[in-house]
Design goal:
The complex is a heterodimer of chains A (about 15) and B (about 260). Chain A has about 15 residues and is an all-beta fold. Chain A contains no helices and one strand. Classes of the chains: A mainly beta (about 15), B mainly beta (about 260).
Chain lengths: ~15, ~260
Amino acid sequence: TKSQHQLENFFTRK
Amino acid sequence: MFEAKLQQGGLLKKILESVKDLVVDGLWDCDGAAITLQGMDSSHVALVEMLLRAEAFEHYRCDRNVTLGMNHNHLSKILKCANNDDIVILKAADQNPDSCSLILESKNGEKTSDFVVSLVRIDTDQLGIPETEYSAHVKMSSGEFQRICRDLSQFGDAVQITCSKQDVKFSSSGETGKANITLTHSATVDKEEESVTVDLKEPVDLTFALRFLNLFTKATPISDTVTLSLSQEAPLVVEYKIGDSGHIRYFLAPKIQE
């Protein structure tokens, strides 16, 4: 199964 | 003082059902304009953003911005005591409250229940979500989307979503075999909640974990339709409108393309 991105790869912490 | 009176308690019940299995604790930010909630699942793969504007409430008072740290399981237990047509009133002091009151009033006014729930201290990291031009938007029946996610999870743990000009294909495969479900752009939009509209700027082909999509579709009772927004190598957005006074938006990070 393909490995998974995390949202921090796309959105910056406030 | 923060006080918000919702005529249809059922809406708050549905909102809790939509978020509680994804985000156990959440920060409910209340200001003069709206209540917003943003939370991520523990693996930081999925995020839910809820917005409910003041106009959704029959009465809304928020003298100073206040953030309520809610345990969604506790809140859900209280709302299980509410009928859909109960009036629900949320109340909290606006100076660092440590609890929140919920009052449920039955429609015929003969039964009033009140609960006090302790607020929790949460140090979640919030993410900034940029406004994005997406390559594809798919608007469809929310029930249909829930059905597709449920059916495909029989075949595999991930769904490949490919959008072309005229259609959107959902594929999954595993030891059972391979499954493809293709929806074609509806020529005539007679009943909005039964039609499929694909608005494509460029083709997309992305893969997502079905486990999270099946958590997102818990919001199905909130809206007859759901809108998926996709761009290559970007999180999927699954949006359910809350009438015209808010929304529940889910974001799901894609699987890494080999």
